[in-house]
Fold this sequence. Notes:
It contains 17 helices and 7 strands. The chain is of the alpha/beta class. It has 3 domains: 5-102 and 302-364, Rossmann fold, CATH 3.40.50.300; 105-180 and 268-298, no CATH class; 187-265. It has a 5-stranded parallel β-sheet, sandwiched between helices. Strands 4-5 form a two-stranded parallel sheet.
Amino acid sequence: xxxxxxxxxxxxxxxxxxxxxxxxxxxxxxxxxxxxxxxxxxxxxxxxxxxxxxxxxxxxxxxxxxxxxxxxxxxxxxxxxxxxxxxxxxxxxxxxxxxxxxxxxxxxxxxxxxxxxxxxxxxxxxxxxxxxxxxxxxxxxxxxxxxxxxxxxxxxxxxxxxxxxxxxxxxxxxxxxxxxxxxxxxxxxxxxxxxxxxxxxxxxxxxxxxxxxxxxxxxxxxxxxxxxxxxxxxxxxxxxxxxxxxxxxxxxxxxxxxxxxxxxxxxxxxxxxxxxxxxxxxxxxxxxxxxxxxxxxxxxxxxxxxxxxxxxxxxxxxxxxxxxxxxxxxxxxxxxxxxxxxxxxxxxxxxxxxxxxxxxxxxxx
Length: 365
């Protein structure tokens, strides 16, 4: 049995990776390699089509008609296409129906968005929504939740495993604060309100008609009214840190700026951050469960499921032994590998390299 060759084709976008993939495969076939024992993972469907077409053309030019026919049995395509092919061939080995019902990517995105929206509407957490309001993240929490879900599903992280990820996220943001809160809860809010009231009185007493002074006063009055009405927005505290009213009011605003910078010492601010992070992780967990149940009830899988199922499939000893005989060369578009570098779980191609226990070399253009 010949050794497996695993190549990562490295080059920047537009510099000819598909051409290089074609060249490597042609060299492999010229040296006696079988076209049906090829695996080539590309980043796009277009690249996969070009690759197959160019190899077919080269084989036809040389009169290798038998090889052209066997090329159709090769594993050439995007990661999702290759994953889908493996799952079809080894469906019974992983307890799946031979014909998987794969949801198109654009439809999957819509279906999951609907699932997430439904979960969010039914989810009653007044404290979370209050934190969103004070952090001005009412429009962000659903997209943030979706990003968590996308990373979780691609990494094979199930809903019951998200709590550990949430704790790590909170620990990471907490590390950004060099000191623990030094104020009592609500103390900053009371103090800054008193400072604003005094600043407004002093500015009015100064009776300065300059536009920048009147604009700054208007902004200050607006923020003060929000605080008194209980509409605390942390972005208003940031505004107070930088608010200016001209040279004649410099002393007043410098004192206000200095006092406003203490907002991060307010325990309520830290608490809002904590509530927000825990909330989006909880929503992500609920949405993952809801979407998974919806697919299971209808017998569907999506692209992320395909990849994770293929990863599990490649841990099957029977499948591994079969592929050792079935595949002689694996080529990978490095752009696809780089796109997965942020993930902690091994990618499909890395699993191939590890499980088939062969040599790995790197080709560069």
